[in-house]
From TrEMBL:
<dbReference type="InterPro" id="IPR043131">
    <property type="entry name" value="BCAT-like_N"/>
</dbReference>
<dbReference type="GO" id="GO:0004084">
    <property type="term" value="F:branched-chain-amino-acid transaminase activity"/>
</dbReference>
<dbReference type="InterPro" id="IPR050571">
    <property type="entry name" value="Class-IV_PLP-Dep_Aminotrnsfr"/>
</dbReference>
<keyword id="KW-0028">Amino-acid biosynthesis</keyword>
<dbReference type="InterPro" id="IPR001544">
    <property type="entry name" value="Aminotrans_IV"/>
</dbReference>
<dbReference type="GO" id="GO:0008652">
    <property type="term" value="P:amino acid biosynthetic process"/>
</dbReference>
<dbReference type="InterPro" id="IPR033939">
    <property type="entry name" value="BCAT_family"/>
</dbReference>
<comment type="pathway">
    <text>Amino-acid biosynthesis; L-leucine biosynthesis; L-leucine from 3-methyl-2-oxobutanoate: step 4/4.</text>
</comment>
<dbReference type="InterPro" id="IPR043132">
    <property type="entry name" value="BCAT-like_C"/>
</dbReference>
<dbReference type="GO" id="GO:0009082">
    <property type="term" value="P:branched-chain amino acid biosynthetic process"/>
</dbReference>
<dbReference type="InterPro" id="IPR036038">
    <property type="entry name" value="Aminotransferase-like"/>
</dbReference>
<keyword id="KW-0663">Pyridoxal phosphate</keyword>
<dbReference type="Pfam" id="PF01063">
    <property type="entry name" value="Aminotran_4"/>
</dbReference>
<keyword id="KW-0100">Branched-chain amino acid biosynthesis</keyword>
<keyword id="KW-0032">Aminotransferase</keyword>
<protein>
    <recommendedName>
        <fullName>Branched-chain-amino-acid aminotransferase</fullName>
        <ecNumber>2.6.1.42</ecNumber>
    </recommendedName>
</protein>
<comment type="pathway">
    <text>Amino-acid biosynthesis; L-valine biosynthesis; L-valine from pyruvate: step 4/4.</text>
</comment>
Length: 290
């Protein structure tokens, strides 16, 4: 990803893609003092940009970092990056981290930095596979308990177990992993939230110990607009046998059908298709924004 043309916004200026570097003693490299975002632009407009910029600032604040850029400045920088790279449909990746001004666990003197890159990123999951539904393994690691980590921050440190779980799943021939929470309930995939359908109702785990995704909230709104009952509840794996459909939601994953999660099977049906269509219409400006 580093050896290509283009521009990356870094601490207030656009830098040539290959020169957007940090020093090896960057605190974030050693101690994961880094937070990030991921959003998509459709037809030149970044979907829910302000929500993403707000979450970036919030994640940083949870880690004790105050970003010197306002939500409006972050929004403007994201848009500037799209333009500079001549992109209309793209994935946008803001990241903020503690720099190399201080080394050691304590790093109050390490300054907050921010960078924003954008690139063309097609479907997160292979489109052909996703049509039938992707296959999820059950992750060997569980989401951390809320008193063991800042679980609502989109913080790099929380993704170590996601990468390990996704690698583990892919090595076993699966597309992604479903992660359980610390008590063994269904939580989310490694980079997307989970939804289930049973007898015309939509179910999703309560987002109390993992990221309450912007796409998750959008899909809940879209379902409510269609008078679909949405039930947020604790879901134990055994209950998966009772659901007919499953899908994932995320800014990168959008709405992705699931055909298997461990020993449980699902078939994409009308509700999953309808909500995927509604989401597609909304992000492309064919539905009034909620
Ligand atoms: N959970 C995890 C672990 C994620 O990485 C993401 C993607 N940011 C999500 C859920 C979905 O969040 P969003 O819809 O805001 O992209």
């Amino acid at each position: 990803y580093d050896d290509r043309d283009g521009f990356i916004w870094m601490d207030g200026e656009l830098k040539p893609w290959r020169d957007a570097n940090v020093h090896i003693l960057t605190h974030a490299m050693h101690y994961a003092s880094s937070v990030f975002e991921g959003q998509r632009a459709y037809n030149g407009k970044i979907f829910k940009l302000t929500e993403h910029s707000e979450r970036l600032r919030k994640s940083a604040e949870i880690l004790g970092m105050e970003l010197p850029w306002s939500v409006e400045e972050i929004n403007a920088a994201c848009e500037q990056v799209l333009k500079a790279n001549d992109l209309t449909d793209a994935y946008v990746r803001p990241v903020a981290w503690r720099g190399s001004e201080q080394m050691g666990v304590a790093a109050q003197g390490a300054k907050p930095h921010m960078a924003i890159a954008a690139w063309k990123w097609g479907k997160y999951f292979d489109a052909e596979k996703a049509e039938k539904g992707i296959r999820l393994d059950i992750a060997p690691y569980r989401r951390p308990a809320p008193h063991t980590a800042p679980v609502h921050a989109k913080a790099a440190g929380l993704y170590m177990i996601c990468t390990m779980s996704k690698h583990h799943a892919e090595a076993r021939g699966y597309d992604d992993a479903m992660m359980l929470d610390w008590e063994g309930r269904v939580a989310e995939a490694t980079g997307a939230n989970a939804f289930f359908v049973r007898e015309g109702k939509l179910y999703t785990p309560i987002a109390d110990i993992f990221l309450n995704g912007i796409t998750r909230r959008t899909v809940i709104d879209l379902a409510k607009k269609r008078d679909i009952e949405v039930i947020e509840k604790r879901i134990w794996p055994e209950e998966l046998a009772t659901f007919e459909e499953m899908f994932l939601t995320g800014s990168a994953a959008e709405v992705t059908f699931v055909s298997e999660a461990g020993p449980w099977n699902f078939t994409p049906g009308n509700m999953s298709r309808q909500l995927r269509q509604d989401y597609d219409d909304l992000v492309n400006g064919r539905l009034v924004n909620s």
